[in-house]
Amino acid sequence: MEPLKEMFNRRFYTGFAEAFGKADRNFNVEGFMKDVTQGLDGLSLNQRLHNTSVVLQKHLPADFQKALAVLYKVAGQVQTGYTALVFPGFVALYGKGHFDASMEALKFFTPFGSSEFAVREFLRTDLNRALQVMKGWAADSNHHVRRLASEGSRPRLPWSFKLDAVIQNPALTRDILEQLKTDTEPYVRKSVANHLNDISKDHPAYMINLVKSWDASNTHTAWIIKHASRSLIKQGHQDSLAVFNFEKNVKVRLEKLRLGPARINLGEALQFSFELVSEKKTPQKLVIDYALHYRKAGGGLSRKVFKLKEAELAPGAILQVAKKQVLKDFTTRKHYAGRHLLEIMVNGRTMGEKAFDLRIP
């Protein structure tokens, strides 16, 4: 499979440079191609993205407003997606002295390639002013712009720096989230839920109190609340469980926890099954999860929780559960040989564990 960094290859840059040449007759297509491909093979994906914005600045008008005018012309003419992050990336690098124009540009560019990382540069330098603009974005007719309001202001956005002020005071983004709590677009709702989940890592009580004040009879709001609470539910957080009427005082017994092969090769499926036996005289609403404790390169274990199912267990009832999961490498996880651990949880409580060995062929 071709490496992700090859999104920025010579073929891409040829079309990219031609689009700028058409938008600006003074743009030096050959000069840009020479500069942007110099040392290209040794650059990672993010280095290529950053380098493209830097080289563009060299070949666009020195005046930021005039450079923006060219970027506006080109944005809709080239491929959308990750490579289009060049446009907001340029604004983040060179637009800090032009706040109003830059924020408007980030709003314009986000449908082509999300401005979520770029806008954080403006939040870092002028938090309150940027949040005020983003509050307006939360009411925009374009769902990409509405999502940007939530995603860009997340306290702990992955692949970006933390917004320490928002971590310390989550109320700073409340106006944005309040406007988006009934959004009809799943793309927006997922961002709102992830934003709330970020908050729950530092201020669980604040997050729970906020979503409890919302009208969960709205299906869009209910989805957000459920997805936002996933980390707290996996931890067995009592107030979070109560929001969804999950049993606080779980009385179940784990029986017949079995693994398939206790030794598996990378690329094969881990298979396991078990039974949960009710030990309560009233029905129990359960959320059942499992965790894999992966072997790390240094020899320790790293825990990752996965959702299994939700169920209501009648008094004396027995629930049978089976699952299989293929263990393979991803860009975000590399597996290492050795002893691993499977953990079964009910409403955040560990019910049982079993070890298995992973081999790397």
Account of the 3D structure:
By secondary structure, the chain is α+β, with helices and mostly antiparallel strands. The protein has 2 domains: 4-243, Serine Threonine Protein Phosphatase 5, Tetratricopeptide repeat (Alpha Horseshoe), CATH 1.25.40.290; 252-359, Sandwich (Immunoglobulin-like). The protein is 42% helix and 21% strand. It has 16 helices and 8 strands. It has helices at 10-23, 29-36, 45-59, 64-75, 86-94, 99-109, 119-125, 127-137, 143-151, 164-168, 174-180, 186-200, 204-212, 219-228, 230-234, 238-243, and strands at 252-259, 263-265, 269-278, 284-295, 301-313, 318-326, 338-346, 349-359. The protein has a 5-stranded mixed β-sheet with strand order 2-8-7-4-5, with no helix packed on it. It has a 3-stranded antiparallel β-sheet with strand order 1-3-6, with no helix packed on it. A hairpin with a 2-residue loop joins strand 7 and strand 8. Helix 9 (143-151) packs parallel to helix 12. The radius of gyration is 25 Å and the shape is globular.
Task: Describe the secondary structure blueprint for this structure.
Elements: H1 10-23, H2 29-36, H3 45-59, H4 64-75, H5 86-94, H6 99-109, H7 119-125, H8 127-137, H9 143-151, H10 164-168, H11 174-180, H12 186-200, H13 204-212, H14 219-228, H15 230-234, H16 238-243, E1 252-259, E2 263-265, E3 269-278, E4 284-295, E5 301-313, E6 318-326, E7 338-346, E8 349-359
Parallel strand pairs: 2-8
Antiparallel strand pairs: 1-3, 3-6, 4-5, 4-7, 7-8
Helix pairs in contact: 1-2, 2-3, 3-5, 4-6, 5-6, 7-8, 8-9, 9-12, 12-13, 12-14
